[in-house]
Amino acid sequence: MNRIIPLSLGLVASLALLASPAVAVDGTLTLYTSQPNTDAQQSVDAFMAAYPDVKVTFVRDGTTKIMAKLEAELAAGSTPADVLLIADSVTMEGLKSRNLLMAYPDADVSAYAEGVHDADKTWFGTKLITTGIMYNTAATMIPSSWSDLLKEEAKGQLAMPSPLTSGAALIHTATLVGNLQAGWGYYEGLAANGAQASGGNGGVLKQVAGGEKLYGMVVDFLPIREKAKGAPVEFVFPAEGVSAISEPVAILASTQNADAAKAFVDFLISKQGQELALSQGYLPAHPDVAVPAGFPDRSTIKVMPFDAAKALAEAEANTARFANIFGQ
Q1: Which of 107, 133, 137, 149 has the fewest C-beta atoms under 10 angstroms from its C-beta?
Q2: Contacts of 316 (CB under 8 A, 6+ apart)
Q3: Nearest alpha-carbon partner for 96 in 308, 255, 265
Q4: Quick check: 284 and 277 in contact, CB under 8 A?
Q5: For residue 77, what is the enclosing H or E element?
Q6: Known CDD domains for this protein (predicted)?
């Protein structure tokens, strides 16, 4: 899901001027991230342009592999990582529960909606990557609600990622179960209607764009981007709302440069840092920043409530129940 969107030197310079530090910070900072390489490099470059006395290096891999590396280092007694920027808040909650994250009570989150950031300010959402419904334009039934995927027209025609392999899918499952009136009955209905659950979001995109399936549950930017390239797909934000992962950032309690780490958090959640997320093609979490091309007006996008701590506590039970319903 790499997104090759060039960030001009002019934009980096503008972000640097707009986000010039109020307090001088220096030294080195090590970032562990699951961002695509291009996004990670752009984020680091823009931050260093704003904070030229801080040298940032980053290690990039998928969230699962980054966490495995971090856990191995922690078990060995130390990690070079100062800041963590990964896909989901549930993983952050696991670290928080073990007192591995540093609280940053002075972080300015006043502009944000409740729930985007940890109430105790140990992790902070940097964008909203929502999961909704995509469909192939050959479909005769145009969905507008999650319940539409239970209709006869969608029988055997729905692809969706599995929470057994996708963190976003696990959050999506917990969100729908917690917000739809039918709860787990909704997923039982999907299974009875022949829905296929496997792999991650990329596989869903491929199946629906290729016409193998007519409908899919998928993260927003994939079909929106592919539609812009000419693929025969559309994306729908269902009326009941969507789930969202927030690609949170957090400071590790073991950081050797807390001031620079706090500056990095400040930069990502500032309006200027959110403009960077927009330039990369993501839906910024900051309510006053525009939406990317292809997205509807922000006021029409309803994000369902989600409790990351509750989802962490129920993760094992949720994956087991999902696997039982879909025979995995």
Answers
A1: 137
A2: none
A3: 308
A4: yes
A5: none
A6: PBP2_Fbp_like_2
**Identity at 293, one-letter amino acid code:** A
pTM: 0.84
Q: Which of 13, 5, 31, 3 is nearest to 263 (CA)?
A: 31
Indicate the length of the chain as a whole number: 328
Residues 6+ apart with CB under 8 A from 325: 184, 187, 188, 191
pLDDT digits (tens, 9 = 90+) for 103-140: 999 999 999 988 899 999 999 999 999 999 999 999 99
Domains of the chain: 9-126+246-295 (3.40.190.10), 128-244+301-326 (3.40.190.10)
Q: How far is CA 126 from the centre of its chain?
A: 8
Q: Would you state the structure tokens that stand for residue 320, as one six-digit string?
A: 């087991």
**Cα–Cα distance for residue pair 282/66, rounded to 1 Å:** 22
Q: How far apart are CA 42 and CA 38, in angstroms?
A: 6
Supply the DSSP string of 175-235, one letter for each residue.
HHHHHSTTTHHHHHHHHHTT-EE-S-HHHHHHHHHTTS-SEEEEETHHHHHHHHTT-SEEE
Q: What are 84's two structure tokens? A: 């963590």
Question: Alpha-carbon torsion 108, 113, 115, 116, what sign?
Answer: negative
How far is 206 from 212, CA to CA, in rounded Å?
8
Largest CA distance in the chain: 62
